[in-house]
Structure formats: structure tokens, C-alpha cells
Design a protein that fits this description.
Blueprint lengths: L1 E13 L4 E3 L2 E3 L4 E2 L7 H14 L4 H4 L12 H14 L3 E10 L9 H12 L6 E6 L5 H4 L3 E11 L6
Parallel strand pairs: 5-6
Antiparallel strand pairs: 1-4, 1-7, 2-3, 5-7
Helix pairs in contact: 1-3, 3-4
The structure holds magnesium ion.
């Protein structure tokens, strides 16, 4: 059987923070603000996984009020979410995600992100697609106030039971 989940996240851009997207640190004068490493792309993917499993949202599983998640690598949270997938007898079928950022150019980093997600989600890289777009200068992404990300995940269980 199949399950589909959707995830969305936004983080504000601020000075004196690294820019981490898909577990990759990207040279940039500003970075995303947040309790963890503020990896907006990975957060959207985690929320899509949690949505596909039907177990709430990222804030319930990894609360940003919990000191143990301060500065944590979001890829480690995605690894925990991957363990949840496997515990329920599912595996990742495919992942498609989009980052919205006016700058910097993200194309050179997308394949590295894909490989990191493949490893973390225990799935072949060809089941994972990571895209980036600008918002044509419009809105908070266009004004470089923040970045947002969207993700869709499908999970598959090979056995016939629900
Ligand atoms: Mg977030």
C-alpha cells in the first residue's frame, strides 16, 4: 500500500548564522534562524514523512522548546523519522521537494543534498528529487527575508496488510 505526505516550512534569514540546506553548508552572508540548524528543506521533508505516517507534525515529535534539539543537525531528525517509517513497515517510495530562495544559486549543491537524503532515508538516489527556484523577487523569499520549502513523500509497504 501507499501513503502520501506533504510538508511545508519557512525560516527567516538573519546574520551570524550558517546557511544549511539539505545538510549542506552553503557559503552565504546570511543564514536561516531557528532552534535547530534551521534546515528548512529537511524540515519540510520530515513533515512530509510524518504526514505520510499520519502521526501529526514535526513540532510534536521534535519540539523547538526542547533543549536537546538546540543546534541539532536536521538530518539526524530525518534519520529518526526514517526509523519511524521502517518501524511501521514502510519504506520510502519517492521524495520530491522544492526550495524557494532568491539567492544564492543552489543548483551546484542539489546533487549533494540528494545523496545525503538518499543515505539518510535509506533509499536509492533516483527516488529522490530536489529542486530550487526563486520567487521572481516577489514576497518574503524574493525580498530575501526568508526561505521556504515544499516536499511530497510517498511511502510503500510491500505486504498486503494495512
Ligand atoms: Mg522549521
Amino acid at each position: 500500500m501507499f501513503r502520501i505526505g506533504f510538508g511545508y516550512d519557512v525560516h527567516r534569514l538573519v546574520e551570524n548564522r550558517p546557511l544549511i540546506l539539505g545538510g549542506v553548508e552553503i557559503p552565504h552572508p546570511v543564514g536561516l534562524d531557528g532552534h535547530s540548524d534551521a534546515d528548512v528543506l529537511t524540515h519540510a521533508i520530515i513533515d512530509a514523512v510524518i504526514g505520510a505516517l499520519g502521526v501529526g507534525d514535526i513540532g510534536q515529535h521534535f519540539p523547538d522548546t526542547d533543549p536537546k534539539y538546540k543546534g541539532v543537525s536536521s538530518l539526524s531528525l530525518l534519520k529518526t523519522a526514517t526509523d519511524m517509517i521502517h518501524r511501521e513497515g514502510f519504506q520510502l517510495n519517492n521524495l520530491d521537494a522544492t526550495i524557494v530562495a532568491q539567492t544564492p544559486k543552489l543548483a551546484p549543491y542539489l546533487n549533494t543534498m540528494r545523496e545525503k537524503f538518499a543515505e539518510t532515508l535509506a533509499a536509492p538516489a533516483d527516488r529522490i528529487n530536489i529542486k530550487a527556484t526563486t520567487s521572481e523577487g516577489l514576497g518574503f523569499c524574493g525580498k530575501r527575508e526568508g526561505m521556504e520549502a515544499f516536499a511530497v513523500v510517498s511511502l510503500i509497504k510491500s505486504s498486503s496488510d494495512r
